[in-house]
Design goal:
transport, alpha+beta, ENaC, 29% helix, sodium channel activity, transmembrane, 4 strands, ion transport, 172 residues, two-stranded antiparallel sheet, elongated, two-stranded antiparallel ribbon
């Protein structure tokens, strides 16, 4: 964890809300960043084609815009549901959006293991027919702070522009 104020940001599709801590990036306050957003879009065909994909978006629409949109999401949704049924809370390690209480640090399941039970679902679901993923490439850049100086000969805007040009020339 950073020692200065920061923000976790995860870029995602509108169909799934990932944890910014698991799949996001950390940006520190008081610093500037140049980011480049890359999108990867994939469209596959369902059975009988070789890709044998699962149309999660169709299932998502049929469920009123709720539910998992990937094989991993199916497993995580199952885990959240099973843990909540057993413990009336969901462990923080379950990466699926929910409105249930978060369990304390010591999580003991009474009898069955929701993770093992839910992993069997992965065999019944395949890769998504339609998927969009985002990645970010970024770098931290310097912040230039200019202090306006009152001049009889130049207005503050002209003077600021001149100072910025000088700083940029000195950087190259």
């Amino acid at each position: 964890l950073p020692i200065s104020p920061s923000v976790q940001i995860a870029i995602h599709t509108p169909y799934f809300l990932p944890s910014p801590y698991d799949s996001g990036n950390n940006y520190q306050g008081g610093k500037a960043y140049e980011l480049r957003l890359l999108m990867d879009e994939t469209h596959l065909l369902p059975s009988p084609y070789q890709t044998n994909c699962t149309d999660y978006l169709k299932m998502w629409r049929e469920n009123g815009g709720k539910g998992p949109v990937s094989q991993t999401g199916v497993v995580q949704e199952c885990r959240a549901r099973r843990y909540n049924e057993q413990l009336d809370c969901v462990p923080i390690k379950v990466d699926y959006p929910h409105t249930n209480s978060i369990c304390g640090t010591e999580v003991e399941s009474n009898g069955s293991n929701p993770t093992e039970e839910c992993l069997t679902l992965a065999d019944r679901y395949n890769q998504p027919c339609d998927s969009i993923s985002y990645t970010t490439e970024g770098k931290q850049v310097a912040i230039t702070v200019g202090k306006p100086v009152v001049s009889k000969f130049m207005n503050a805007e002209e003077e600021m522009r001149e100072k910025i040009e000088q700083v940029l020339q000195n950087q190259h």
